[in-house]
Please model this.
Amino acid sequence: MLIEIKDVTKTIKKALILDRVSLEFKGGLIYGLQGPNGSGKTMLMRLVAGLILPTKGEVLIDGKRLGRDIDFPPSLGLLIENPAFLPGYTGKRNLELLAELQNRVGEKEICQAIRDAGLDPEDKRKYRKYSLGMKQRLGIAAAIMEKPDILLLDEPTNALDEGGVEEICGLIRRERDRGALVIVACHDRDLLEGLADEIYTVAEGRVERRQP
Ligand SMILES: Nc1ncnc2c1ncn2[C@@H]1O[C@H](COP(=O)(O)OP(=O)(O)O)[C@@H](O)[C@H]1O
Ligand SMILES: [Mg+2]
Model:
């Protein structure tokens, strides 16, 4: 798995959101994006996911250009900001409905992903009764349930307590170890230092490799 971001600039209206970004990401590694609010971490995630297209430059997924050869990376798990689940259904039912879109996984994988994210697949509560931390965990379960080649996690530890953060870090390492290319955006530098194989600093749309 290889993601190549080649000299990408993104402007929205007149605002410069990403400024001549060039990066390469490979499978089997955890990449950390660290930077303050508004620096461009989420936009970089959206770019890799094919949700926005560059104003200049290109993004290649295993050599295929997003927006030209393919619309989206073919195997992608994504957690960006507030996941949109249906409030009147249980967590498991929500994931079943999502899984039906691709038909790649069944109940077994769904239940495993829910457990991996630290929730109970038999929990009968509706999503609307979930705490913020439970909502976040369900978003993570949705992102991993299809064992994607690329896993994009935007602030995955938001709303989690200390134990929850450790659990999710363990999950992220296991995803890396099965070969996934993992990109984690997080404003918390200390957390990323303990988790990421490579850290990139994002500031005002510029991205730089942090020397280890
Ligand atoms: N939908 C949008 N339209 C225009 N500008 C946006 C939009 N979303 C975010 N931005 C701007 O893009 C920049 C980067 O935002 P973002 O990637 O969300 O930052 P981060 O995730 O690092 O907090 C910010 O200046 C923000 O104001
Ligand atoms: Mg963000």
Summary: Residues 84-147 form one domain.
